[in-house]
Amino acid sequence: MKDELFKAIDGKDAVKFASFLSPECRFKFGNYPDVSGAGNIQKFVAGFFESIDSLAHVIEQSWDVPGGLICHGQVTYTRKDGSTMTVPFENIFKMDSAGICEYMIFIDASELYR
């Protein structure tokens, strides 16, 4: 699941990304407000994807835990002006029978739009 999920993200495919989410998923990206519901998350993520040129994740470690998954790595964002920013991230996924029901991204993306 993890490899396919990150492939969808790095491919900026919001529809494929949302297919991993349960209908009532709660999504948290850094300091942005929480977004609830797979459809709302898809819209939020599509907007984020449109605001950058590209992104690429390198997962350095991951841990399967009861009811979820934790991933640690580096993500490189390419801005619309061609400049890049690489920062560490931690993703925590809580899972249920319908997919990812809670998706939390711990990242400092504060410099992305500066």
Q: What can be said about this structure in brief?
A:
Helices cover 25% and strands 49% of the residues. The protein has helices at 2-10, 14-18, 38-51; strands at residues 21-29, 35-36, 54-65, 68-78, 84-96, 99-107.
What does this structure look like?
The structure is a single chain. The chain is an alpha+beta fold and 114 residues long. It is 25% helix and 49% strand. The chain contains three helices and six strands, in the order H-H-E-E-H-E-E-E-E. It has helices at residues 2-10, 14-18, 38-51; strands spanning 21-29, 35-36, 54-65, 68-78, 84-96, 99-107. Strands 2-1-6-5-4-3 form a six-stranded mixed sheet, with helices on one face. Strand 1 (21-29) and strand 2 (35-36) form a beta hairpin. It starts with a helix and ends in a 7-residue tail after the last strand. 17% of the residues are buried. The model has no long low-confidence stretch (mean pLDDT 96).
* Pattern of helices and strands: HHEEHEEEE
Structural class: alpha+beta
What characteristic shape results from the CA principal axes? Answer: globular
Rg on CA atoms, Å: 13 Å
The N- and C-terminal alpha carbons lie at a distance of: 33 Å
Strand content: over 45%
Sketch the major β-sheet: 6 strands, mixed
Q: How many β-strands, per DSSP?
A: 6
- Give the overall average pLDDT: 96
The helicity comes to 10-25%
Poorly predicted tracts of residues? none
Oligomer: single chain
Number of distinct helices:
3
Strand order across the largest sheet: 2-1-6-5-4-3
